[in-house]
């Protein structure tokens, strides 16, 4: 059984075609990095797996069943919303608010629910920081709490949408290492979208590159090559390896920013999340 | 003027308390005022907490203004202003919820709706004869003029609001904190947005009986914002918000009795004072925590 199967899938959003005729298999226990330019459909891909964006053609299977909304087997870490930082609510309540959150009733946590909250906070190493209000946590800490939230209900698959954006390289590394350790410890499938390939190089099993309505899935050395990317982008792309890092260059301009660009990367990231 | 407040049409201030020695609660109108104030304060505090958490305070304010149109329109056709307000705010609240994030969070759209609503309210008042008192009572409230039957109506409406809030609170919190995740887990975001704004609408209509449509902010947003400055725990925050709203309302009515100044003035002043104190405490405590964290960090290095 595959974790995710796309059979000749076409996704459309507001009349615009995002993916057309994509077929791919992602195995259980794989760590997949999803890359691609802005608007290539990374978020839409995840929403399709979650059953929130139906395929306009083709079929999507998740863990052997047709993709459906409300699938408890999938944990989802959406892109960080700017309003999360303004909520003066403790991390504990932020994570606890998700337990049975789809059921009607008062938000009282029973014994089982409290131990579930404890379990996920322990998993991401956030028991201490969960006592603080969300508005007083750093970007990296907030990302931990979001991941804890997604782990409520013991999902078999974790989808993370741009968890590294707006983080400095050190915190990016922290998040990547955390996700990798969760993946091995819990034996789950991970699909993580990112603007940058380099922070993920050590942990990826395969990379899924979206571009121009198409998708390429394979090992980094198979997919991140000049010819493959040129085909996806429809223009001349060069791939340069420097000291174990990979840079993707189009007509002399670097397309994804490397770590050195991070200090001034904020405006760009914001633009990126708006587009995604 | 004697001390029997009648519904609408009484001036919102009273004569100084006569030196005869009747206790405050020996007057029926004071008993009614306290009963109505208690019901409305608890409902406003609790509903307001969610309103602030969802960042929809301005939407709540707009609903109250729409209520003004409903109330004046109702008077014009011979209905009770309270029910006119309830109907109109409920319709507007559910409409806002149904239109979704596109409208419920748009300041400009809400601002325009709010202004148009007040404009229509003014037009309806124009056709109505006893203009000024009616308008002042609706706009600024007159808790001392609440009669027994209104108290019972408020109790019924309050019960409905709180029961509805209790039933949807868990998915509402989920949808407020993490809409995308909630959606992925099968929560219908739009539905809860509609239901919640319907509850807010009901609450603003109730709240307007105490402090008037222009000042519902004072009981719905002030106490909740102060509570959120003081605690980051959900349960404590809800309790504190209701408690602050109660204290403000009770003190406001009492001060109005002894000073002869309008109760709405006292309630708004107390609400602002409590919020400012809470915000000052937060900024002080925030600095202390920051220092502790920095020194702990320095030790760790």
Care to describe what's here?
The complex is a heterodimer of chains A (276) and B (301). With 276 residues, chain A is α/β, with parallel strands linked by helices. In chain A, 29% of the residues lie in helices and 28% in strands. Chain A has helices at residues 42-49, 91-96, 111-123, 139-151, 169-186, 220-223, 226-233, 266-275, and strands spanning 2-13, 16-27, 31-35, 57-62, 65-66, 74-77, 157-161, 189-193, 206-211, 214-218, 237-242, 245-250, 253-254. In chain A, strands 6-7-8-3-9-10 form a 6-stranded mixed beta sheet, with helices on both faces. The A-B interface holds A 50-52, 69-72, 74, 76-79, 81, 83-84, 86-90, 92-94, 97-98, 100-107, 132-134, 136, 149-150 and B 53, 55, 166-171, 173-175, 177-178, 180-187, 228-229, 232-234, 237, 286, 289.
Give a quick summary of the entry.
The complex is a heterodimer of chains A (276) and B (301). With 276 residues, chain A is an alpha/beta fold.
Question: What's the shape of chain B?
Answer: globular
For the record, give the distance between the C-alpha atoms at the N and C termini of chain A, rounded to a whole number.
30 Å
Name the helix and strand elements of chain B from N-terminus to C-terminus, one letter apiece. HHHHHHHHHHHHH
Quote the average pLDDT of chain B. 85
Total number of helical segments of chain B?
Answer: 13
Strand order of the largest sheet of chain A: 6-7-8-3-9-10
Number of strands of chain A: 13
Note poorly predicted spans of chain B.
1-12
* Envelope shape of chain A: globular
Helix content of chain A: 25-40%
Class derived from helix and strand content of chain B: mainly alpha
Strand proportion of chain B, as a percent range, falls in: under 5%
What is the C-alpha radius of gyration of chain B, as a whole number of Å? 20 Å
Strand content of chain A: 25-35%
């Amino acid at each position: 059984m595959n974790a995710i199967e796309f059979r000749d899938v076409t996704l459309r959003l507001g009349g615009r075609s995002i993916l057309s005729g994509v077929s791919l298999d992602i195995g259980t226990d794989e760590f997949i990095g999803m890359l691609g330019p802005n608007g290539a459909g990374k978020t839409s891909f995840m929403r399709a797996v979650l059953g929130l964006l139906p395929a306009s053609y083709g079929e999507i299977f998740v863990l052997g069943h047709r993709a459906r909304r409300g699938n408890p087997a999938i944990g989802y870490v959406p892109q960080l919303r700017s309003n999360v930082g303004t909520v003066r609510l403790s991390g504990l309540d932020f994570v606890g608010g998700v337990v049975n959150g789809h059921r009607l009733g008062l938000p009282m946590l029973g014994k089982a629910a409290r131990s579930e909250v404890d379990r996920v906070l322990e998993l991401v190493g956030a028991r201490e920081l969960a006592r603080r209000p969300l508005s007083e946590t750093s970007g990296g800490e907030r990302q931990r709490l979001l991941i804890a939230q997604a782990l409520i209900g013991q999902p078999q698959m974790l989808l993370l949408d741009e968890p590294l954006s707006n983080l400095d390289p050190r915190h990016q590394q922290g998040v990547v290492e955390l996700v990798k350790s969760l993946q091995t410890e819990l034996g789950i499938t991970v699909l993580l979208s990112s603007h940058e390939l380099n922070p993920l190089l050590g942990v990826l099993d395969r990379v899924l590159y979206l571009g121009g309505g198409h998708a390429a899935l394979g090992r980094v050395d198979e997919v991140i090559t000049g010819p493959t990317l040129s085909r996806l982008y429809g223009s001349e792309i060069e791939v340069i390896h420097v000291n174990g890092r990979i840079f993707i260059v189009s007509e002399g301009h670097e397309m994804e920013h490397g770590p050195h660009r991070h200090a001034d990367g904020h405006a760009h990231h914001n633009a990126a999340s708006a587009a995604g | 003027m004697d001390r029997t407040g009648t519904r609408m049409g009484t001036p919102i201030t009273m004569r100084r308390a006569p030196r005869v020695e009747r206790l405050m609660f020996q007057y029926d109108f004071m008993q009614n005022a306290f009963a109505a104030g208690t019901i409305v304060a608890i409902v406003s505090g609790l509903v307001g907490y969610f309103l602030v958490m969802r960042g929809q305070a301005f939407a709540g304010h707009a609903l109250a203004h729409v209520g003004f149109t409903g109330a004046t329109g109702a008077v014009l056709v011979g209905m009770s202003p309270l029910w006119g307000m309830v109907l109109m705010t409920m319709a507007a609240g559910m409409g806002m919820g149904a239109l979704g994030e596109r409208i419920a969070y748009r300041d400009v759209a809400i601002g325009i709706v709010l202004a148009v609503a007040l404009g229509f309210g003014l037009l309806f008042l124009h056709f109505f004869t006893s203009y000024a008192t009616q308008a002042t009572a609706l706009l600024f409230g007159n808790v001392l003029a609440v009669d027994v039957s209104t108290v019972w109506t408020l109790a019924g409406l309050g019960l409905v609001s709180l029961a509805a809030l209790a039933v949807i609170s868990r998915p509402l919190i989920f949808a407020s904190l993490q809409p995308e995740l909630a959606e992925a887990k099968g929560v219908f975001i739009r539905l809860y947005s509609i239901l919640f704004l319907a509850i807010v609408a009901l609450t603003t209509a109730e709240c307007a009986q105490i402090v008037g449509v222009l000042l519902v902010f004072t009981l719905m947003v002030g106490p909740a914002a102060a509570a959120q400055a003081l605690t980051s725990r959900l349960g404590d925050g809800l309790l504190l918000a209701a408690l602050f709203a109660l204290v403000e309302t009770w003190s406001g009515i009492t001060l109005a009795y002894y000073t002869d100044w309008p109760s709405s003035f006292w309630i708004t002043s107390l609400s602002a004072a409590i919020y400012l104190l809470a915000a000052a405490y937060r900024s002080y405590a925030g600095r202390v925590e920051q220092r502790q964290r920095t020194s702990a960090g320095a030790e760790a290095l």
